[in-house]
Specification:
The protein has about 350 residues and is α+β, with helices and mostly antiparallel strands. It has helices spanning about 15-30, 70-75, 85-95, 115-130, 195-205, 220-225, 230-240, 255, 280-290, 290-300, 315-325, and strands at about 60-65, 100-110, 135-145, 155-165, 180-185, 245-250, 265-270, 305-310, 330-335, 345. The strands form 2 sheets. The protein has a 6-stranded mixed beta sheet. The chain has a 4-stranded mixed beta sheet with strand order 1-4-2-3, with helices on one face. The protein is globular. It starts with 14 loop residues before the first helix and ends with a strand. The mean pLDDT is about 95.
Length: about 350
């Protein structure tokens, strides 16, 4: 007898499932289209034309990121709905820090075995987040890799390209002593610090469906709330106010992200009492016995975005964010940095 003919499916890769997935996500991708899109889903690459009538000296701005180990917790608790927005926000909020408008987004989804329903949930979240910030989901890649990813494991990565007029780039170069730091509220933990979160959850045997003392919703809802999208409101505010520096508070927390957007001769002094520490962070800190300094280095502690503005504009910027349903506070100021001074101090 001759040996059985092997197929790709026998090796763990289902081409039919991949084709079914592509057909299912086509309308999701279509709803993110901008007029500049020249290609369709299924081609080898995406085509996007730059509007030369709108920009005189356009500069492209790019960023890439993932969701980190938040994926693992979302899988364990079967709560995947917010991960798509997390993925888009992590990169789109980054290009925003240069004053750029996100133009198009690409995703990479890798798994051991393609579950079309689960993958569709993820892509739906990505597409909806792209639509919400006016960014086209131009393309992506779905990779089925048995033995590399085991069981239900998967990973997500994203890549965004934005655009900004050359003379409108926000790089922090004009920040000077006397400027104020405005902090804009996060929606929760966002997508950083989840290795520590997961360790606390595991060590205390916490339940995703339980509403713990001090929390206003079940734990899974609180911890897995998607990362806030700051793009549209911040770009609108930048048209009316002088935003000298913008910092997306991601991995490294306030301690490491804010100093990235002002000159070496400056330092930021923040007042911890200037904004309310969300109960979720207080609860995590207490459960994990986490020191204040570690909290500031790992988590956003309730501040997802910082903007540095002239002192006389700070109150107006706070009101502008609040009018767009983004709580904001003046949380500190920029001062001169002396020899040996740390670039940031949180009092």
């Amino acid at each position: 007898m001759s040996a059985k003919a092997l197929t790709y499916k026998d090796a763990g890769v289902d081409i039919d499932a991949a084709d079914s997935f592509i057909q299912r996500i086509k309308p999701l991708v279509k709803m993110t289209d901008r007029p500049e899109v020249l290609s369709t889903v299924g081609h080898y690459a995406g085509l996007f034309a730059i509007d030369t009538a709108k920009y005189k000296s356009p500069v492209l701005v790019s960023s890439t990121d993932g969701v980190g180990t938040k994926v693992k917790l979302a899988l364990e608790w079967s709560r995947l709905e917010g991960l798509g927005q997390d993925l888009v926000a992590m990169s789109a909020n980054d290009v925003l820090c240069l004053g750029a408008e996100p133009l198009f987004f690409l995703d990479y989804f890798a798994t051991g075995k393609l579950d079309v329903d689960r993958a569709t949930v993820l892509l739906k979240g990505i597409a909806e987040a792209c639509r919400d910030i006016g960014c086209t989901l131009l393309g992506g890649e779905t990779a089925e890799m048995p033995k590399i990813y085991r069981g239900d494991d998967f990973d997500l990565a994203g890549f965004v390209v934005g655009i900004v007029e050359k003379d409108a780039i926000i790089d922090g170069a004009t920040v000077k002593p006397g400027d104020k730091v405005v902090g804009v509220a996060s929606s929760g933990v966002h997508s950083n610090g989840f290795s520590l979160v997961r360790k606390i959850v595991a060590s205390k045997k916490l339940s995703p469906d339980k509403k713990y003392p001090g929390l206003d919703r079940p734990l899974a809802d609180a911890l897995l709330a998607p990362t806030r999208l700051y793009v549209k409101q911040t770009l609108e505010i930048a048209k009316k106010f002088e935003l000298k520096g913008i910092a997306h508070i991601t991995g490294g927390g306030l301690s490491e992200n804010l100093p990235r957007v002002f000159p070496k001769n400056c330092r930021a002094v923040l007042k911890r009492a200037a904004w309310p520490m969300p109960p979720l962070f207080q609860w995590l800190q207490k459960l994990g016995h986490v020191e204040d300094e570690e909290m500031n280095r790992v988590f956003n502690c309730g501040i997802g975005l910082c903007v540095i503005v002239p002192a006389e504009q700070a109150a107006g910027v706070v009101d502008a964010f609040k009018s767009r349903n983004d709580p904001a506070w003046i949380i500190g100021e920029i001062v001169a940095r002396g020899a040996g001074d740390n670039p940031i101090e949180i009092l």
